[in-house]
Write a structure and sequence with these properties.
Shape: elongated
Strand content: 15-25%
Largest sheet: 5 strands, mixed
Strand order of the largest sheet: 1-2-3-7-4
Distance between the termini: 25 Å
Order of helices and strands: EHEHEHHEEHHEE
Number of domains: 1
Number of strands: 7
Structural class: alpha/beta
Radius of gyration: 20 Å
Mean pLDDT: 84
Low-confidence stretches: 188-197
Oligomer: single chain
Number of helices: 6
């Protein structure tokens, strides 16, 4: 199994073989999607498939679920980020345009059929302040280098905001469902069964 576009690109250059499954997640929108998709198809074993995982992992969703701990103060966090970075889209800061809305078009254009979609319901998670800070810095729109010399000041303000929201520094969120789209070359007869239940 190969995960991610970096593996695809390196394998193509280094001749590291073929794979039954190649999976992509939050990396695919950064790539030259058509070129990477074509390369991935050429690396599949007969009967293999590409799997594109759709998941929002950095934050939960609004819901009526009863939570064991308070929700993170997301609106206040967003306002804090905007105060430091402004309201400009991250795609205007030297990043490629987000092509997430045309991924199905790309897979079909390179000769795939599908997708077969498998969905996993979202669940309630507990998150510490450390995990929330790490999740915010993991985003392209609030990655540490964007703050420059103000990164430490931003983090201090963020941690203060979280601690004021809950002195125990632990929060709960209802997560969005996760979906996996399975794309197969048009001639493939592979069948990947969805889990029972």
């Amino acid at each position: 199994m190969c995960t991610g576009g970096i593996c695809v690109q390196r394998s193509c250059r280094q001749g590291l073989g073929q794979y039954r499954v190649i999976s992509f997640a939050q990396s695919f929108h950064w790539m030259d999607q058509a070129a990477v998709a074509r390369t991935a198809l050429g690396m599949l074993e007969p009967g293999g498939a590409c799997v594109h995982v759709h998941a929002t992992t950095h934050r939960g969703i609004d819901s009526d679920a009863v939570l064991p701990y308070p929700r993170p103060p997301r609106s206040a966090i967003d306002e804090l980020i905007e105060r430091y970075l402004g309201s400009a889209s991250p795609w205007g800061k030297g990043l490629p345009p987000n092509k997430g809305d045309r991924e199905a078009e790309v897979w079909r254009a390179v000769g795939c059929h599908g997708p077969q979609r498998i969905e996993v319901p979202g669940h309630i998670v507990g998150r510490s302040s450390d995990q929330i800070v790490a999740a915010i810095f993991s985003l392209s729109s609030s990655t540490p280098h964007l703050f420059g010399e103000r990164r430490e000041a931003f983090e201090a303000d963020l941690r203060r905001l979280l601690h004021d929201a809950n002195h125990d520094d632990i929060f709960s969120e209802q997560m969005r469902k996760t979906a996996a789209d399975i794309w197969r070359p048009a001639a493939s007869s592979l069948s990947i069964a969805a889990p029972a239940g």
